[in-house]
Amino acid sequence: MRTEDVLAAIATGLWRWDNASGTVTLDAEAARLLGLPPERAELTEAAVRSRFHPVDWNEVDQIVALAVAEGTLAEARMRIMDENGRVLRTVRSRSKPIRKETTQSAEGLDYVLVGTLQEVAEPQPGATAAHTSITGDWRRSREAFLLDAGRALAEARSTAEVLRVAASLSMPGFSPDGLAVFGVAGDRLSIIGHHGHNPGDDGPFADMQLDTDYPAADVVRTGRAIYLPSPEEYRRRYPATWPLAQRFDRQSWAFLPLIVAGRTIGTWMAAFKHPVAFTPDERSVLTTVARMLAQALARAGEAESERELSLGLQRSMMPTLGPEIPGMTVAARYVPTGGGLQVGGDWYDMIPLPSGRFALVIGDVQGHDVRAAGLMGQLRIALRAYASEGHRPDAVLSRASRFLYGITESYGESYTGDDDHPRFATCLYIEVDPATGSLDIARAGHPDPVIRTAEGTALIRQTAGGLPLGIEADSDYPTTRLVLEPGETMMICTDGLIETGGHDMGSGWTRLRPVLEEDTGDGLEKLADALVQAVHGPSSHHTVGPLADRREDDIAVLLLCRNSDVCGCGTVPGAGVVPARRTALTVAQAEPHRIAGVRRELRELLHDWADAEQVDAAELMVSEMVTNVLVHTDGDALLVAEATGTPGTRCLRVEVADASDDLPHKRRPGEMASSGRGLVLMEMLADHWGVDPRGEGKSIWFELYEGGSAGEGGSSEA
């Protein structure tokens, strides 16, 4: 009796499905089971697919693809329908895909599927096809599990998190109790994480050659999954390593390749205390989890590599602050913009100088990418070299500008920004004398420094400046000298600290000023943290800036405090003494435009003065006094403004000195006169005023008393 007759007697048909030609060959029994005339036939793939329920065909297609990839049997159940869409019967198929190694189609390797069809008892003939899949409940559970697993693995940010997620996965119906992930490095295989084992159990598997007779190594060599449903199967296939696995008392094992972009990066092992048959559905779940696990491990590895590179760049490019400075305290912070390599073009530096002084430098190279970071590193080294040679601040910045201009011009596209123009950098260079507190400042397009006085008022100090570095080959950078008094703190920062969150320079300064002026008593380090927290912490969301462009920027901030008993870096003033609030600056003959800055700085000094009309009067008198010096003398105007006392009863004294011996005198200007009203204004607006001759030159001064505590104004002294 022929084999076909024997199979027909037990209602089993034979079929042969050629993937390359798209033809299906059926014997008589197989044709009958598909609802066709009971005779041998050769049909097209489309004709046979039309006999299957669409839902079942999609499942079969996935099962066959899994069997082709693993080289195993494809087992499935399918509903056979007639022309009216009614279910005739349900059949079970068992087939073996045989690859055609010599050819390959556009969708993958060609194969021939050879197998059997056999009728099963459910569902009843004549029932409608509009019901759920045969494996409906289990499949819904599987799909829900895969969705949860995919989401959890996608959110994992590190290898350790990926392994924790893998250990917590609870597969529907067959959860493993032991897991291990093996990684490949050269010709070695090692465990990078495991779960469900005691400490030290991974010793024999921690490091092995890829040619070891062990399933995980075999999977890496072949790229195919290995399923071992019983201890007997494990012992038969891997007798050399079976004694190592036997002591764990497991009943079934699955070893699956971790494949990323066609490359096997390791093996995932799932071990079970109960026997598992590894049906097509179970293998499909394991294969899908292995693919997601491989992608998650690859993403985590890349993220960890980027973080390590970022930290390495930061460690090499952002120096630690130097040794302690007698009588001074320094603190600094650097915050990258967030994504990517976490590096950018902002930097700070503290440079010991040959003179015994030291230099503070802060700058910002255009952009916050790797190119900006590389350019920043070169510029920082150049600045340090020029400073170490003993050059003054203006010469250091001039040489640095020429250096940056030269490399951006020479290397073209390597150092261009988003607008294809050569990159530039802003910079603030300060030479500090710790003994006297003097600050010699050169500024290249950078925000001005901020001084917090000993009594707690934060003021922006206007300084002379030049173009950003790298704009022109030869640029001049005038130097401004300030004095940091005992108890005062200086803050210098990049624009990221001010403009983060959609702010401009004005609104950003308004947000930062209360943080600087708050007397917490916690020291300079706490103040640095508070400044960063003000623009990055939860409180920053309550002061959203006015700008539509909310692109974040790197942040660098540097704080310098000149220590004293009444310290401005956060300690509580002692003995009830309120320090004076003072500002001093010089306006040169060639810089009449700086008078506007003088008015602005005086208004900043009096920002909390009780009487707004007195502030306006002081601003008017100062403007008149400085203008008179520039118009009627040949020298510069030196202004000193000081507010003393407690709020509400303070005294403002402003002096403007010059080198001329000619004393001012009152005049009676006519209605059309353009001058001669300065002393008249002083007499009308000041509480006290006067002119003091000096050894070389003179000083004109006035006083205002907050709340009129010193009586009516208008008196003068000469």
TrEMBL record:
This is SpoIIE family protein phosphatase. Keywords: Hydrolase. The keyword Manganese does not apply. Residues 325-562 form the PPM-type phosphatase domain. Residues 144-307 form the GAF domain. The keyword Lipid metabolism does not apply. InterPro entries: Bact_Sigma-Reg (IPR052016), GAF (IPR003018), GAF-like_dom_sf (IPR029016), HATPase_C_sf (IPR036890), HATPase_dom (IPR003594), PAS (IPR000014), PAS-like_dom_sf (IPR035965), PdeA-like_PAS (IPR048820). Gene3D superfamilies: 3.30.450.40, Histidine kinase-like ATPase, C-terminal domain, PAS domain, PPM-type phosphatase domain. PANTHER family: STAGE II SPORULATION PROTEIN E, STAGE II SPORULATION PROTEIN E-RELATED. Transmembrane segments: none annotated.
